[in-house]
UniProtKB/TrEMBL annotation:
Protein name: Gfo/Idh/MocA family oxidoreductase
Organism listed in the record: Nocardiopsis codii
Residue intervals of the GFO/IDH/MocA-like oxidoreductase domain: 139-247
Annotated Gfo/Idh/MocA-like oxidoreductase N-terminal domain residues: 8-121
InterPro entries: Gfo/Idh/MocA-like_OxRdtase_N, Gfo/Idh/MocA_Oxidoreductase, GFO_IDH_MocA-like_dom, NAD(P)-bd_dom_sf
Pfam family, one: GFO_IDH_MocA
Length: 378
């Protein structure tokens, strides 16, 4: 793709996230993109959104959109159960894809999508993990790569949010077959992805989950202890029951503690770097904050994606890099529902949890999450 030509973009799905995040991010890119079409099953919603944003192509069928418009990039904003088919359809049409989280409902679905990519130079499917792309995370990532802050030792990764009962009245929420899981899958995935993108792969996880206060098939609270391949240990908490909402990450390294507290996005002001007592004047810690202050945002990730498209390279948050957080979540569900510690290497196609986050047994999962049975046999 020529860096001087506009990228033709189509959006599939016109729900709240489309107008609230994706279309403003595209508008902020100016002449770099041209939003040519929008598709949704609801024709009235397509018309309203397209009128508001001046989008010419309007469709109620994604296949018709792809055939008529031949977009370079397709942004998938459908409910989670429709992600896999929409992404595969776009890849088959020759378009690159940027899909909302969660990437898929299972590792099996994720790997099926990857089988439709052209590893020789695209198109590729990537996923919305925008918190990786703020200047604070990028600066910390550089120091971790260079080792200037020492080894990571201890971490905290909390997504403590609040959703009242009415939130789950949307038919696809809180169901295994349509959302894939609870806050571990649909909410905490952002902070877990950021944590893993910084600290690297995990090796084993021990988790507990429960359906404590909301009427859902899935959990509304999960907690886990995660061991990383580096030897560091991270505690993870995901909740939809927490009135004072926060997203909080803490990394204790040999030479510094680095903290991030925000809610749905951050800038440099949300970070705090504290040097270890023996390194009060350490140059690496003094390197904070960056001169640039790029907030975490859909625009920041989309810019990175467009750069990768122009180079014909796999973008970040795709392939194995995009799979990492979904893999950890699979391990968490397997651990919580079976009462065992799960090793990353055990999540193979021979395992039931590779194919479904509840291991294919919704009844037993419900019994475990609501503590109505003393069994972990799934």
């Amino acid at each position: 793709m020529s860096p001087t030509s506009r990228t033709r973009v189509a959006v599939i799905g016109s729900g709240a996230i489309t107008g609230y995040r994706h279309l403003p991010a595209l508008a902020a890119l100016g002449d770099r993109v041209d939003v040519v079409a929008l598709a949704d099953l609801d024709a009235s919603r397509v018309a309203a959104t397209a009128d508001e944003w001046g989008i010419p192509g309007r469709y109620t069928d994604s296949g018709a959109l792809l055939g008529a418009e031949s977009p370079d990039l397709v942004i998938v904003c459908t409910p989670p159960a429709a992600h896999k088919d929409a992404v595969i359809e776009a890849l088959r049409a020759g378009a690159w894809v940027w899909c909302e989280k969660p990437p898929a409902l299972s590792l099996a679905e994720y790997d099926e999508v990857c089988s439709h990519e052209d590893a020789a130079g695209g198109p590729f499917a990537s996923y919305v993990f925008q918190h990786r792309f703020g200047s604070g995370a990028e600066r910390l990532r550089r120091h971790l790569a260079e080792g200037t802050l020492g080894r990571p030792l201890v971490g905290v990764c909390n997504t403590l949010w609040f959703r009242d009962p009415s939130y789950f009245e949307v038919p696809w929420r809180g169901r295994w077959d349509t959302e894939g899981g609870g806050p571990s899958m649909g909410h905490g995935i952002h902070q877990m992805d950021l944590m893993l993108s910084l600290l690297g792969d995990w090796s084993e996880v021990t988790a507990v989950m429960s359906t404590t206060a909301r009427t859902t098939e899935t959990e509304d609270v999960s907690m886990a202890i995660v061991r990383l391949e580096s030897g560091a240990t991270v505690s993870v908490a995901n909740s939809l029951l927490s009135p004072r909402q926060t997203s909080y990450l803490r990394f204790d390294l040999e030479h510094a503690t680095v903290e991030l507290e925000h809610l749905y996005g951050y800038d440099n002001g949300h970070w705090r770097w504290t040097p270890a007592p023996h390194l009060r004047d350490d140059a690496a810690v003094a390197d904070w904050p960056p001169v640039e202050d790029e907030p975490s945002s859909h625009k920041a990730q989309l810019t990175s994606l467009l750069d990768a498209m122009e180079r014909g390279e796999r973008p970040r948050a795709s392939g194995a890099d995009g799979r990492r957080s979904l893999e950890l979540i699979t391990g968490m569900y397997r651990s919580a529902l079976t009462g065992t510690t799960v090793r990353r290497r055990d999540l193979t196609p021979d395992d039931a949890f590779y194919h479904a986050m509840n291991g294919g047994d919704a009844a037993t999962a419900a019994a475990v999450l609501t503590r109505t049975e003393e069994t972990h046999d799934v």
